[in-house]
Amino acid sequence: METVLVGGPQSLYIPDLPKSRGGRKRLRGLRLIHTHLESEPLTEDDLMDLVFLRLDCIGAVQVDANGGAVTLEVAHIQTGAGIGSRGFEVLAPMPCHDPDLDFPALVRSLESELERNLPTHSASGEGEERAILVSVADSDRESANRSMAELVELARAGGIIAADTVIQMRRQKNPRFFIGKGKLSEIVLRALQCGVDLLIFDQELNPSQVRAITDTTELRVVDRTQLILDIFAQRAQSREGKVQVEMAQLKYLLPRLGVKDDALSRLTGGIGTRGPGETTLEINRRRIKDRISQLEDSLRDLRKRRNLRRTRRTRKQIPVISIVGYTNAGKSTLLNALTHSSVFVENKLFATLDPVSRRLRFPKDFEVIITDTVGFIRDLPKDLVEAFSATLEELQEADLLLHVVDIGNPRFEEQIEAVENTLARLELDSKPTVMAFNKIDLVGPELLEQKLRKHGGIGISAANPRTLHPLISAMEERIAGFLDREVGLSEPVGE
After folding, report:
1. Which of 105, 264, 460, 495 has its CB surrounded by the most CB atoms within 10 Å?
2. Radius of gyration over every alpha carbon of the chain, rounded to an integer in angstroms
3. Pick the residue with more confidence: 484 or 427?
4. What's the confidence (pLDDT) of residue 152?
């Protein structure tokens, strides 16, 4: 059955299309034919409609002075075009009464070409999504490339494969789409070619921008904050971690309740059988606020229990060392090496989320509690910092911070700055700190010596326990000094 939609002189209403023809791998099954009374060629708006609506083709009938149809100009999507190309092909004008074009054959060839361009299977296993990653930067291309590389790793940590990456250098963000509309049309075409229906933005989008992009492109949209929340939801294992993640998700979702966004369904993962995703959109703000209040009460109870455990440690005068650092710097590997533990380790961002504490006995025959905390990242979402305040309170009680740095990462100095900024934000920048430069086997001796001298750090390889003796000695010396002060303060003052 064929359907004909007739519009007026100003607009044409297109209803919801059947799922069989609106899928991510196919064109719409619609051909738009309209009249240009001034015999003008296809306009930029026409060509944008062609791409954004995924039309089979678009045609403009050009008329003569008497209103008679003369020529027909047709454009269709260019299946082999990539980012930066026009994305469409405009055919030469042809007579209206006898167009030299087989439309059904053209559409079949376009769809056939699109199908050939799709991947036959997932490169990293079943169940993984594919997405196009997008970033808008002002002027620093190198910094934008580094940020995009991190977004690729974040996506991988969330089980998403980067089908393509797009960086637009733009001094002013588009207030409606965040990215330029022309570049957005290229992204839509690329999404059609790659068979993806998900866009991930490196920056945080406001609710109106999410809605505008979603309505225009019909693609799901996730920003950097939501991606990190999604990763945390997947990784939280303890009851406390699940409570904290759910609260952060709900706080992120609350101002976005008015936005009909299918991408919010990604928030359902990892926090139990009923998450704050699509189901949350069906309830009102009052119920969400009530749920947040319940979660805050739960966190207060958990905080009391933590305080009780800390009080017991204080009474026994057991010092606490907290491991901090950028995510995926090797903190859990170092904890395993120091304490002979088997904490889960994986080469992914935020591989471990819940804090882990172990006892560590130093050669001078005294014990400490060493704690591995959640890794930091550039621009850690505010809602996550607030939600994880109960966990991060462990850092407040630490007698020594062990800052682990991945010196094998080309951006390690930026990561040091990001960690130090987060510690300052938590008012922990005055804590005694030992800096351990991990993965020294990945850099040359000259660079290592230069950076150790600059930052006053200690070089280690967490995978090689024989390199840890200088670090153990440094921590032992700092903690022994702390214990000496504690003993001195506890001794009675003589007359």
Report:
1. 460
2. 29
3. 427
4. 93
Phi, psi of 276 (to 5 degrees): -90, 40
318-490 adopts what CATH topology?
A: Rossmann fold (3.40.50)
Instruction: List residues bridging with 372 in a β-sheet.
Output: 323, 356
- Token pair in block for residue 357: 């504490």
pLDDT at 121 over 60: no
Number of DSSP helices (H) and strands (E) in the chain, helices first:
15, 15
Sequence-separated (6 or more) residues with CB below 8 Å from residue 254 = 285, 288, 289, 292
Determine the angle formed by the axes of helices 285-315 and 239-253, rounding to 10 degrees: 140
Q: Considering the entire predicted model, what is its pTM?
A: 0.76
First to last CA, the chain: 105
Instruction: Kindly provide the b/e burial profile for residues 443-475, where b requires at least 16 CB atoms within 10 angstroms of the residue's own CB.
Output: beeeebeebbeebebbbbbbeeeebbeebbebb
β-pairing, 31-36 with 160-169? Answer: unpaired
Residue 327 near residue 379 (C-beta atoms within 8 A): no
Quick one: three-class SS letters along 96-158? CCCCCCCHHHHHHHHHHHHHHHCCCCCCCCCCCEEEEEEEEECCCHHHHHHHHHHHHHHHHHC
Cα three-residue angle 28-31-32, rounded to 5 degrees: 120
Helices 181-194, 207-217: axis angle to 10 degrees equals 60
What single string gives the DSSP state of each residue in 248-292? HHHHHHGGGTTS--GGGGGGGTTS-SS-SSGGGGGS-HHHHHHHH
Tokens matching residue 132:
């196009």
Which tokens sit at 278?
Answer: 């699509």
What would the pLDDT profile of 277-324 be if each residue is shown by its tens digit?
544 455 567 888 888 889 888 888 877 877 776 666 565 678 889 999
- Per residue in 197-209, pLDDT (tens digit) is 899 999 989 889 9
Domain boundaries in the chain? Answer: 19-117, 318-490
Q: Side chain identity at 154, as an amino acid letter? A: L
